[in-house]
Amino acid sequence: MSRLNKTPSGLKISDFEDKSLLIVDDDDPFRDRLSRAMAKKGFEVNSAKTVDNAVNLINNKAPKFAVVDLRLENGNGLDVVKAINSTKKDSRIVMLTGYGNLPTAVAAIKAGAIDYMAKPVDADDVEAALLAEPDSKAKPPENPMSADRVKWEHINRVFELCNRNVSETARRLKMHRRTLQRILSKRSPR
Protein backbone atom coordinates (compact mmCIF):
# COMPACT_ATOMS: atom_id res chain seq x y z
CA MET A 1 0.00 0.00 0.00
CA SER A 2 1.28 3.50 -0.71
CA ARG A 3 2.58 5.75 2.04
CA LEU A 4 -0.19 8.25 1.30
CA ASN A 5 -2.92 5.84 2.33
CA LYS A 6 -1.26 3.98 5.17
CA THR A 7 0.41 5.49 8.20
CA PRO A 8 3.07 3.77 10.32
CA SER A 9 0.46 2.93 12.97
CA GLY A 10 -1.55 0.93 10.44
CA LEU A 11 -4.63 3.18 10.63
CA LYS A 12 -5.98 4.85 7.51
CA ILE A 13 -8.50 7.65 7.18
CA SER A 14 -10.83 5.12 5.50
CA ASP A 15 -10.92 3.23 8.84
CA PHE A 16 -12.91 6.14 10.31
CA GLU A 17 -16.57 6.78 9.63
CA ASP A 18 -16.21 10.48 10.52
CA LYS A 19 -13.46 12.01 8.37
CA SER A 20 -14.08 15.65 9.34
CA LEU A 21 -10.95 17.75 9.90
CA LEU A 22 -10.78 21.32 11.17
CA ILE A 23 -7.60 23.29 10.45
CA VAL A 24 -7.21 26.49 12.48
CA ASP A 25 -4.27 28.72 11.58
CA ASP A 26 -3.91 32.45 10.92
CA ASP A 27 -1.13 31.89 8.37
CA ASP A 28 -3.23 31.92 5.16
CA PRO A 29 -0.75 30.24 2.77
CA PHE A 30 0.10 27.49 5.27
CA ARG A 31 -3.57 26.85 6.14
CA ASP A 32 -4.59 26.68 2.46
CA ARG A 33 -1.68 24.42 1.51
CA LEU A 34 -2.33 22.05 4.44
CA SER A 35 -6.09 22.03 3.71
CA ARG A 36 -5.53 21.00 0.09
CA ALA A 37 -3.01 18.31 1.06
CA MET A 38 -5.24 16.81 3.75
CA ALA A 39 -8.27 16.82 1.42
CA LYS A 40 -6.19 14.80 -1.09
CA LYS A 41 -5.50 12.31 1.71
CA GLY A 42 -9.25 11.72 2.21
CA PHE A 43 -10.15 14.11 5.03
CA GLU A 44 -13.27 16.31 4.82
CA VAL A 45 -11.60 19.63 5.55
CA ASN A 46 -12.96 22.84 7.04
CA SER A 47 -10.64 25.67 7.96
CA ALA A 48 -10.74 28.76 10.11
CA LYS A 49 -8.45 31.73 10.65
CA THR A 50 -9.67 32.91 14.06
CA VAL A 51 -10.83 31.44 17.35
CA ASP A 52 -14.34 32.82 16.78
CA ASN A 53 -14.63 31.26 13.30
CA ALA A 54 -13.37 27.94 14.66
CA VAL A 55 -15.82 27.93 17.58
CA ASN A 56 -18.71 28.66 15.18
CA LEU A 57 -17.69 25.69 13.00
CA ILE A 58 -17.35 23.49 16.11
CA ASN A 59 -20.82 24.50 17.34
CA ASN A 60 -22.30 23.51 13.95
CA LYS A 61 -20.48 20.17 13.82
CA ALA A 62 -17.58 19.17 16.03
CA PRO A 63 -14.80 17.57 13.97
CA LYS A 64 -13.29 14.13 14.56
CA PHE A 65 -9.81 15.53 13.72
CA ALA A 66 -8.29 18.98 14.23
CA VAL A 67 -5.01 20.75 13.58
CA VAL A 68 -4.81 23.93 15.65
CA ASP A 69 -2.12 26.60 15.78
CA LEU A 70 -1.29 27.68 19.32
CA ARG A 71 -0.96 31.40 18.63
CA LEU A 72 -3.75 32.94 16.61
CA GLU A 73 -4.08 36.63 15.81
CA ASN A 74 -7.21 37.02 17.93
CA GLY A 75 -6.62 34.50 20.70
CA ASN A 76 -5.18 31.22 21.82
CA GLY A 77 -5.53 27.87 20.08
CA LEU A 78 -6.00 26.20 23.47
CA ASP A 79 -9.48 27.78 23.54
CA VAL A 80 -10.29 25.96 20.29
CA VAL A 81 -8.99 22.65 21.71
CA LYS A 82 -11.18 23.08 24.81
CA ALA A 83 -14.23 23.90 22.65
CA ILE A 84 -13.72 20.74 20.58
CA ASN A 85 -13.24 18.54 23.67
CA SER A 86 -16.33 19.96 25.36
CA THR A 87 -18.50 18.89 22.41
CA LYS A 88 -16.69 15.77 21.14
CA LYS A 89 -14.51 13.88 23.63
CA ASP A 90 -13.06 11.38 21.13
CA SER A 91 -11.61 14.01 18.78
CA ARG A 92 -7.98 13.70 17.71
CA ILE A 93 -6.32 17.10 17.94
CA VAL A 94 -2.79 18.06 16.99
CA MET A 95 -1.46 21.38 18.27
CA LEU A 96 0.98 23.30 16.05
CA THR A 97 3.24 26.15 16.98
CA GLY A 98 6.13 28.14 15.62
CA TYR A 99 7.21 28.86 19.19
CA GLY A 100 7.51 25.44 20.78
CA ASN A 101 8.44 25.06 24.42
CA LEU A 102 7.71 22.58 27.19
CA PRO A 103 5.06 24.55 29.17
CA THR A 104 2.89 25.13 26.09
CA ALA A 105 3.25 21.47 25.06
CA VAL A 106 2.05 20.39 28.50
CA ALA A 107 -0.86 22.87 28.35
CA ALA A 108 -1.87 21.55 24.92
CA ILE A 109 -1.89 17.93 26.08
CA LYS A 110 -3.82 18.82 29.25
CA ALA A 111 -6.39 20.69 27.13
CA GLY A 112 -6.97 17.54 25.09
CA ALA A 113 -4.50 17.52 22.20
CA ILE A 114 -3.02 14.11 21.35
CA ASP A 115 0.19 15.54 19.90
CA TYR A 116 2.17 18.74 19.74
CA MET A 117 4.29 19.65 16.70
CA ALA A 118 6.63 22.54 16.01
CA LYS A 119 6.23 24.36 12.70
CA PRO A 120 7.08 23.97 9.94
CA VAL A 121 5.41 20.60 9.37
CA ASP A 122 4.31 18.75 6.27
CA ALA A 123 1.03 16.98 5.57
CA ASP A 124 2.52 13.48 5.95
CA ASP A 125 3.70 14.26 9.50
CA VAL A 126 0.30 15.78 10.40
CA GLU A 127 -1.53 12.74 8.98
CA ALA A 128 0.73 10.37 10.93
CA ALA A 129 0.08 12.29 14.15
CA LEU A 130 -3.69 12.39 13.62
CA LEU A 131 -3.95 8.68 12.81
CA ALA A 132 -1.44 7.40 15.37
CA GLU A 133 -2.52 4.86 17.96
CA PRO A 134 -3.33 6.79 21.17
CA ASP A 135 -0.71 4.98 23.27
CA SER A 136 2.03 4.83 20.64
CA LYS A 137 5.12 6.98 20.69
CA ALA A 138 5.51 9.27 17.69
CA LYS A 139 8.10 8.15 15.17
CA PRO A 140 10.67 10.64 13.97
CA PRO A 141 9.91 12.10 10.55
CA GLU A 142 11.15 10.08 7.57
CA ASN A 143 12.43 13.12 5.72
CA PRO A 144 12.96 15.95 8.23
CA MET A 145 13.85 19.44 7.09
CA SER A 146 17.48 20.39 7.25
CA ALA A 147 18.60 22.81 9.95
CA ASP A 148 19.25 25.40 7.24
CA ARG A 149 15.68 25.02 5.95
CA VAL A 150 14.20 25.34 9.47
CA LYS A 151 16.27 28.49 10.05
CA TRP A 152 15.19 29.92 6.68
CA GLU A 153 11.49 29.17 7.42
CA HIS A 154 11.74 30.84 10.84
CA ILE A 155 13.42 33.96 9.44
CA ASN A 156 10.79 34.27 6.71
CA ARG A 157 7.95 33.79 9.20
CA VAL A 158 9.29 36.57 11.44
CA PHE A 159 9.80 38.73 8.33
CA GLU A 160 6.13 38.25 7.37
CA LEU A 161 4.97 38.90 10.95
CA CYS A 162 6.93 42.19 10.86
CA ASN A 163 5.01 43.19 7.72
CA ARG A 164 8.08 42.57 5.55
CA ASN A 165 10.03 45.31 7.36
CA VAL A 166 13.72 44.33 7.12
CA SER A 167 14.93 46.65 9.89
CA GLU A 168 12.29 45.49 12.37
CA THR A 169 12.89 41.83 11.49
CA ALA A 170 16.65 42.22 11.92
CA ARG A 171 16.15 43.88 15.31
CA ARG A 172 13.84 41.09 16.53
CA LEU A 173 16.15 38.36 15.27
CA LYS A 174 19.18 40.17 16.72
CA MET A 175 21.08 40.10 13.44
CA HIS A 176 22.62 42.68 11.15
CA ARG A 177 20.23 44.12 8.57
CA ARG A 178 22.55 43.36 5.63
CA THR A 179 22.96 39.75 6.75
CA LEU A 180 19.18 39.43 6.86
CA GLN A 181 18.85 40.96 3.40
CA ARG A 182 21.33 38.41 1.99
CA ILE A 183 19.39 35.54 3.56
CA LEU A 184 16.05 36.85 2.26
CA SER A 185 17.42 37.29 -1.27
CA LYS A 186 18.40 33.61 -1.53
CA ARG A 187 16.18 30.68 -2.40
CA SER A 188 15.05 28.36 0.35
CA PRO A 189 17.52 25.57 1.18
CA ARG A 190 16.41 21.94 0.80
Give structural notes.
Strands 2-1-3-6-7 form a five-stranded parallel β-sheet, with helices on both faces. Strands 4-5 form a two-stranded antiparallel ribbon. The chain has helices at 28-40, 51-60, 77-87, 102-111, 123-131, 147-161, 166-173, 177-185; strands at residues 20-24, 44-48, 65-69, 71-72, 75-76, 92-97, 115-118. It contains eight helices and seven strands, in the order E-H-E-H-E-E-E-H-E-H-E-H-H-H-H. The protein folds into two domains: 13-131, Response regulator (Rossmann fold); 147-185, Homeodomain-like (Arc Repressor Mutant, subunit A), CATH 1.10.10. It is of the alpha/beta class and 190 residues long. 45% of the residues lie in helices and 15% in strands. It is globular and about 55 Å long. The model is unreliable at 1-9 (pLDDT under 50). Strand 4 and strand 5 form a beta hairpin.
For the record, the CATH class of the largest domain is Alpha Beta
Q: Structural class, judged by helices and strands?
A: alpha/beta
Overall number of domains: 2
Order of helices and strands: EHEHEEEHEHEHHHH
CATH architecture of the largest domain: 3-Layer(aba) Sandwich
Biggest sheet: strands, sense, closure? 5 strands, parallel
Specify the overall morphology: globular
Estimate the helix proportion, in percent. Answer: 40-55%
* Terminal-residue CA separation: 27 Å
Low-confidence stretches: 1-9
Number of helices: 8
How confident is the prediction overall: mean pLDDT? 82
